[in-house]
Design goal:
heterodimer, A: mainly alpha, 13 helices, globular, B: 75% helix
Chain lengths: 268, 261
């Protein structure tokens, strides 16, 4: 693999992403504000209705911090998910030129996804910087937890790409895969702990969810960042996440091979 | 009568077009089913830990959820596709096609496409709502249910006008991407019981940005004894929103400059 090509792809994508207009930033801020407001009220409503000080191992402040962290981490994980770049390349025939590149198509697309982290990281800093003043600094936050959390986010970003890659490759056969991507978003939001901490599920369900890939998209990185995951559990979670990365990479490779056999580059 | 015949033509065209893309038709049905299941499980998980959410019990929340599904399915079936394309018509000059017709351009733009796959989801959503109402342990009279359904339709109309209001700035801004994103974010407040919101946020969500009215107020009208203030509030806001939307539409059309040759 030519690393210079990868480097150039990454920097080009970062520059392209950073040229977004003001309305992108305005809508990103407004959307985040609405999501945070809904989460705020849901958490307080649940605790007010239950009249308990702790639910699923969280107090009200802790659950709020969890949700906020999940939303911000989600921005780093779901960077290009609904942009349909891969399926559009197939539909419009743009895939043809990538077949001539000296870099595998999947790598090109993943590097572009990494480039999209630019504005996501800026949003994280801009929107996250004020949070400690509003909700307080989590009690169990440590430098080691943050370092482990960053590692978990890296795996989560890769896993998210490897899950959506074969879904978008269904464009080789289907005329529209947007709805499949939305299905994945819905399912991963619930099963991955974005809608509710996984500790709120029944224990039997938690055991199943721990084996599925969705937990390692959101809940696992967030819990690690917040210091709720010890080193041994972190190592086990990373191993499971990497296993799922390997499985989805094999699925993606199989779908890619089957798709390119019958691909015809129309539209160029 | 002329408009009814025209709408019947829209329906025939939309169904035949939907059948050309059968795989996509099927995918979208499954997509909504996944959304229904996710929302069910979300509320089920929360209610494992609290008997009340926003003042509603689990049984009441299920009726609310059924209302959300029906309202969403109706909006997706009748309005959503048309609203999606409106900013593109404005920017590319394709709105000319609608403006020169001898019928109301707003009617044409808003109702031309009928999403056949969402109609199937509407049937499922209706089934969910009927199930939720049937299993509700308390007494629900036919009159209450009729008022609830009527208010759901008023909420649907309000949903349409809010969608329109967030898109019409495309006449002047030439892009609606940012406002569309904000609109989709605000629709999340529609899928949660309005009772969870408090303070100035609640005031905003039931007046200026009345997303919380769309399904929560019809559900309140069903369960609350003194329902008429709720009903009148919903009807008043829906009417006012439509008047504003109609005014902005007419203003937009006057400002519209076709991009086509």
């Amino acid at each position: 693999m030519r690393w210079a090509v990868v480097r150039d792809l990454l920097t080009t994508e970062i520059r392209r992403r950073m040229s977004y207009r003001a309305d992108f930033w305005l809508s990103a801020f407004a959307s985040l504000a609405v999501r945070l407001a809904v989460v705020w009220f849901i958490v307080h409503a649940v605790f007010a209705g239950s009249r308990r000080s702790g639910i699923g191992g969280y107090d009200a402040q802790g659950m709020l911090v969890y949700y906020i962290a999940a939303i911000l981490v989600g921005k780093l994980v779901q960077t290009t998910e609904l942009e349909q770049g891969i399926s559009q390349d197939i539909y419009e025939g743009g895939l043809t030129r990538y077949l001539l590149y000296p870099v595998p198509y999947g790598v090109v697309k993943y590097v572009q996804q990494l480039g999209a982290l630019g504005p996501a990281a800026i949003q994280l800093v801009l929107f996250g910087a004020w949070l400690p003043f509003v909700v307080g600094i989590p009690r169990d936050l440590t430098a080691a937890g943050i370092a482990m959390g960053i590692g978990a986010i890296v795996i989560a970003n890769l896993l998210q790409f490897l899950i959506t890659f074969p879904i978008q490759l269904i464009a080789f056969w289907a005329d529209n895969v947007w709805s499949l991507m939305v299905m994945h978003r819905f399912a991963s939001a619930l099963l991955g702990g974005m809608l509710a901490p996984l500790s709120l599920f029944p224990e039997s369900a938690q055991r199943i969810l721990a084996a599925l890939p969705f937990r390692y998209l959101f809940a696992f990185p967030v819990e690690t960042l917040l210091g709720r995951v010890g080193p041994a559990e972190w190592a086990g979670g990373m191993a499971i996440g990497l296993c799922w990365c390997g499985i989805m990479a094999m699925v993606g490779r199989a779908v890619w091979r089957a798709g390119t056999y019958q691909y015809t580059g129309v539209g160029i | 009568m002329r408009y009814l015949r025209l709408y019947a033509s829209f329906l025939r065209f939309s169904f035949s077009r939907a059948m050309e893309f059968r795989l996509d038709f099927g995918f979208r049905i499954v997509m909504d089913m996944v959304w229904y299941v996710v929302n069910f499980l979300f509320f089920w998980v929360l209610y494992r830990h609290t008997p009340l959410l926003g003042g509603w019990t689990y049984d009441q929340a299920l009726v609310f959820l059924g209302g959300v599904f029906v309202s969403d399915a109706l909006h997706m079936t009748i309005f959503s596709n048309n609203m999606w394309w409106l900013p593109f018509y404005i920017n590319k000059g394709d709105l000319d096609f609608y403006l020169v017709r001898p019928v109301s351009s707003l009617f044409f733009v808003s109702l031309r496409e009928f999403a056949a796959n969402s109609f199937v989801n509407l049937l499922m959503a209706t089934g969910v709502l009927v199930w939720a109402l049937a299993r509700y342990p308390g007494p629900l009279g036919a009159g209450s249910i009729a008022i609830f359904l009527g208010c759901l339709l008023a909420g649907l109309f309000l949903h349409y006008t809010l969608n329109l209001l967030f898109l019409l700035p495309a006449f002047w801004m030439h892009t609606s991407h940012g406002l569309r994103e904000i609109y989709f974010s605000l629709t999340e407040t529609m899928t949660r019981p309005a009772g969870i919101f408090t303070g100035w946020v609640r005031k905003v969500l039931v007046t200026v940005l009345p997303f919380a009215l769309i399904v929560s107020f019809p559900t309140r009208a069903l369960f609350e004894g003194d329902r008429w203030p709720v009903v009148l509030h919903l009807l008043g806001i829906a009417a006012a929103s439509f008047v504003v939307a109609l005014g902005v539409w007419r203003w937009g059309v006057r400002s519209y400059v076709s991009a086509s040759s």
